[in-house]
Structures are given as C-alpha cells and as structure tokens.
Amino acid sequence: MNVKTGAYSIPLEIQALAPKGIPCTIEIQYYQPKKNGLPSGSVRTYYYVYEDRSVNKRLAGKTGHGRLLLGKIMGNQFLPNKNGLALLNQTNTSSPNDSEKAAETQKPEASSKPTSKIHPDDTSALPEGLKKYYPRLRDVDMENKDYGEYTIVLASTADVLKGLQQYFHPEDAIRMYALCIIYFIEEYTPASYCGDIFRQSILSNKWPTLSFGEDTINSFLKEIGQHGLMCERYSQSLIDSSSELTALDGHVIMSNSQQNELAEYGYKYSELKDKQINVMGAYDAENKRQLICKAIRGSLPDKLSVHELFIAFNFSHKTFLADSGFYSEENIGYFRGNDNHFIIPVPGTCVIAKMIKKDMSFTECFVYEHTNEDGTITPRVIMYKESIVAELEALDDREKDNEASQKNEMAKAQCKAGETPKKYYPQYNKKSEWGKDRVIIFRDLVMHDRLVYDYRSQIGIDSKHTEEDFRRLEPFFGVIVLRVDKSKDILTAKEAYLTYKKRWTIETHYNFVANVVKFDGLQIQDYYAMQGLSFLILLVGQIKKMYTDKLRASSVKYVKNLSLQESIVKARFIKIAKHLDNKWHVSVMNNKAVELVNEMGANIEEDMQKLNNGTF
C-alpha cells in the first residue's frame, strides 16, 4: 500500500536536505511488504523529490505532462537521478542572476537544457554535501561490452542496411537492422529486453542516439505493420532480383495471445494445443534467400492463403515449387500466369494421382547422386513413368462409365417382372482447364526400403501401425506424383525431379526460423505489430543469407566448416572494455576467435581506433 502526503508532514531535517537553488516538492511514501496477501514486516518510508514547475520558470514551458522526478532522500542525503544531476549542474554552473535573466529572455526549451554534463569522476559542480556521490550504475554507460559476435555480423551484412535505406527513412532502416541483428545473435527477444541487449553490445556505440526502449520498440513494430506498402516494395525488389526457382510454403507459429486477430485454432491444434498464426512466404530456392514473409490467419489453409501473395506481388518468368497443400485448380491458374511455370505434387486423394497409381509398372529410370547428411554422395535409382492430365481424366471417366454400366446390369437382374429398373449415371469429376500438363510418378527405391524398415519396426508398438495397413501402403512407399506444365523438350523427367527437390531449402529456412531464431510461442497482442514482426523475420533471413555466404567463402578450413551457431559462440570470446585511460581495449579469450573475426571482414585494431575516436 502506497500513501502520499503533502509537504507539511515532511520533517524539517528532511526538508533541509533538499537541493538548493531548485524549486522542488518532497513527497513521502509508506510501503509495507505483503506475504500471501497479508501485511508482513515493518513499514518503510521513502522521500521522493520532484521539481516544482509552477515556481521554476525555467521548467514552466518544458514539453510533456506530469512532474519530473529529481531523486530521493536516503541516508541523510539527497541522491539525484539523471534529471536531478542535470539541473544541479545547470544551477551550479551559472549565477542566480544569470538564471533569472535566462528564464525571462530565453525560450523555456533552450534554458531548460543543461550547459554541461556531470561525469561520474567530476564532482566539482555538485554541492558540498554531494562531493562523494556517483551516479547509479544503471545510469552510466557500460564499460564492458559484447564485441566479437556483433562485429562479424555488422561486417558481413552491411548490404542489408544499404538495401533497407533505399526504401525506408535512414533512422527506421537502422532500427530495423539493429533489431534484426539482436534477433539473429540472441534469438527472438521481447521488446522489454531489447534495450538492455542493445546497451550491452557495440551496437550502442555505433548508433549512440538510437532509442531502443520497450515502448519505442513496441510502437515501431506497429508502425512497420501499418505501412505495409513500403514493406511490399522492399520484397518486390527481392523478387525482381531473384532466380527463376521460387519455393512457396507456409509456417506455423504458436501464439499465446488471446487478442491478436490472426491467432486462431488451425490444423496443428492437436500438436500445439493452442492457437496459431500462419506465416506465408516465398523463397529463392536457387540462391537460398527469403523473398516474402507475411503473417496470415491461423485457421486459413495454405491453398486458400496463397492468393494473398499474388494480390500483393508481381511474379513473372518464375517456376513455382510448392507442396501438395497448395494443390488446387485455382492455384494452378495463379502459378501459370505472367509466363510463370510450376512443379507441384499431386495429393493422393486427387483423381489424377489415383489413376496414375493404378498401374505401378514403371517404364523408365535414371540415376542421380544423393548427398547424405554427413556430406557423402551415394547414387540412387529413380523409376518413373509419364502421362498427361487429360489422359488420366479420360481413364477416370471410363472407370465411371464401367461402374455405372455394372450397376445398371445388376439393377436389371434384380428387377422384378413389370417393374422399371433403377437407372445409374456416371458421376464425372470436373475436368482441368489445362489437360496437357504432364503428370510424372517417381519411385525412389532407397527411400522405399527405408520406409518399409521404419514402418515394420513400429508394428506391435502402437495401434497406428498394423500388418494390414502395411500391405495396403507398401506399394506407395517412396512414391511421389508431380504435375509439371513444362514440356519434355524444356524439362526432362529427371530435371523435374531434381528441380523439385530444391524446394527443401525453404523447409530448412523455416527450421532456422523456428529452432534457431525461435520465433515461436509469441504473445504479441496487436495485429499490426505481428505484421511488423513478420517483416523483421524476412530481414533476419537476409542477414542469415549474407552471413552464411561470407562464412562459407572463407579460405580458412576451420572457419569455413563452422556452423552458424558455432561461429557466433566462438566470436563471443572477444569482448571490449574501457579502463582508467578512458579508452576502449579488446579482451581476447580465444585466438581462434580472432582468426574468425578477420575472415568475416572485421578489423579489430581499426575498430578500437574508431571506438576511441567516436567514429565507429
């Protein structure tokens, strides 16, 4: 319980400790701790000192509402905060006559600014009773900072900032870039902690005037989401400069928010047991770079949300790679517009997939070199056969005709004399507008054998794996059916298969988003803030692309073979510290880390010179 009382109740000995020369008000607060909801322990007394703007003409015209806290009285002395130090400095570096004259002749904004700054080691401007006072640790800039991991990211990803500055105000671009560097290095960080990390790193030396408070970051995320057109222009520039192969896929982010309009129960509810937000993205599968990241409703399936991308962005001369969740005739219409093409798996429930699987006698095969997880390469035999959509639909029609004929024959045989037999008609499926599209069925024999082993090892362990289901599913293990709109002359079956396998790059990227940067379990309440964060996810992807390219381009084998996380951890062994000479010095705890920093394009000696010159 907090109780405030007026100045009349303040003891005279406390009033005498108030700062001289500054009109102020002292307020007392009583606080009693609670335990289990009940008062516990002794009552504590606090005296807080506020400026009195009604008396202090120099502060009367200052912008903002509410009073300014100058500090508190504790231990029989006045302990000023940063505001109090500034006013004490201003008061003690000018005579009273000068102060009154300035209040009358100058603008309030100009007169309220301190003429100089009190340094922790400089107590000459303080009153006699405060000669031994030093500012609180949290009010002083840190003298020990994280350096190694930040300098290698800054050195290798500067082009991300340059690209942003072509579409955003320089300050907005810098804040986006700095925030994404924090996400990239420290994982996703709530706004309440971003400021602490910013101050602890050399980012605060590079951009010392950049505001990074909790309210600033929360407002900034909303502002990004509220200006989606600017974000779309940036993404469109990435699309225009990307390769032909464009992978499309969605990603699920669990949301604990009960107020975000995008958070809904979706198809992963059985796994998450909570609401989800879907992120729809496009990815340059050739250059391994994300192009689009847009947050959408959690209940919307991929095949219904893909049109969001085609409404907002312009694609031309692209080949889309998407999974079976995007398969629909409407989406195929999207995929083939503006001289675009596509390769997409056909779901097993689709008619043309059922028809081509009727006869599993493969007519042709090819061999390709598969790269294993350990980097070794093994040859694999892939069997395949081809058809076209129109032929498979015609085969389905013939089956429908035969089925109707059989039912009519049975109806006649069962019909009694003098009665009219029931008439059955074939129920044809709707035909595709693009009957000349190729349908290719592939079978990976190595994958088939692996899935057989995996399934058999589960029989008897759980009820989902049975011998009956195995006999039904085994012919289709290692089988994939692809629909392709390019002719054989342009794209062979082997090329179509190998091209589609590059779609896996977007799955790898989303694995990085979920498990490395850990954009998951979000509690963002605002729709626009979520849209802003989805754009920052895209920027983190840009940083990852440039950083990993620089890492892999190293001529030093040790550096080249480091994973992304290993390189960040290794670089943390280099810190910087300011000593009694008031200069920054580097602290190296691992010589290999120095080699890594040099290979990533940073120069420690030059950075120290720039830090000490204030030009970093």
Description:
- The chain has 616 residues and is of the alpha+beta class.
- It has four domains: 3-139, no CATH class; 142-212 and 554-616, no CATH class; 230-341, no CATH class; 351-501, no CATH class.
- Helices cover 42% and strands 19% of the residues.
- It contains 27 helices and 19 strands.
- It has a nine-stranded mixed sheet. It has a five-stranded antiparallel sheet with strand order 1-2-5-6-7.
- Strand 10 and strand 11 (289-296) form a beta hairpin.
- Helix 11 crosses helix 23.
- The longest helix has 26 residues, at 389-414.
- The chain is elongated and about 120 Å long.
- The chain starts with a strand and ends with a helix.
- 31% of the residues are buried.
- The model is unreliable at 95-121 (pLDDT under 50).
